[in-house]
Amino acid sequence: MASGIQMDQETALELVKKGATLLLLDVPQFTLFGIDTLMFSVGPNFKGMKMIPPGPHFVYYSSANKEGNEFSPTIGFFITTSYSEVVVRRWHCQDERLVKISEDEECRYSEAVKHMEFDNQLGPYALDHFVEWKRLSSYITNTAIERLEPIGGDITIACESGLIPDVPRTVMEKQLMEQLNSSKFSRTTPKDSHRHKCYYTKISQIVKRKDISGEELTAMNLDKVRSLL
C-alpha cells in the first residue's frame, strides 16, 4: 500500500524518521488490517506501518482462515503516537489477536526499527487520507479514550452485541447477530466479555424535565446529545 502523495526520497526518509511506527510481528497472511480510514489485506512480508502522524489513531484487524475468504469479528484498539515513537505488538496465534510484548523486547525492536531494519516490510501511512481522519478524530482525546476503552484496550463487536437487541434491527444487524452467536465466532469471545465492553455513557430513552419549555423538551428527545451537555 502506498500513499497517493508524491515525494522525493529525502522527504520520505525524513517522514520515516519523524513519524511513528507500528511494528506488528507474525501477523498471518490474509488478515484484514486497518488504521484510521484505510483497511487492506495483509501480505506475507507485512510487518506494520511507518510514517504515522502524531496523535490518536484507531488500529483494527480481523483474522482470516487459511484461504482468506472467512473472517472473524473485527478487533480494534486506540494508540496515541508521538514523533519517532515505535509501538510494537505481536500476533498471538491461539487467541488470534495482537498483544503487547515485554518492555525489554519492545526496546530491542524499537532500536531495530530506528536502524531501518524493518523498513522494507513496513507500509507507509496514507498521508492523503490523514486530513479526513484528523477531521473525524478532532474530539478524541487521551482522556476520552481512557474513559471509554475496555479493560485491556481491545474493542470488538463480539463483546458489544448486547447493544443491538435494544434497538430495531436491520437485515444486516440480524445477520451480524447470527454470525456472532455461531459456534465458530463464539469461541473467540472472551469468557468475561463484560470486562471487554466499552464504558459508554448511558442515555435515557425518554427525557422528562419540568424546568424547560415544551419546545426544548421535544428538541432534546429528538437529539439526545443535548442531554450530555
UniProtKB/TrEMBL annotation:
Q: Pfam families in the record, alphabetically? A: AAR2_1st
Q: Which organism is it from?
A: Dioscorea cayennensis subsp. rotundata (White Guinea yam)
- Organism domain of life: Eukaryota
This chain's protein is named Protein AAR2 homolog
Signal sequence annotation: none
Q: Where is the AAR2 N-terminal domain?
A: 19-150
The cross-references to InterPro entries, in alphabetical order and at most eight, read: AAR2, Aar2_N, AAR2_N_sf
Which GO terms fall under biological process for this protein?
spliceosomal tri-snRNP complex assembly
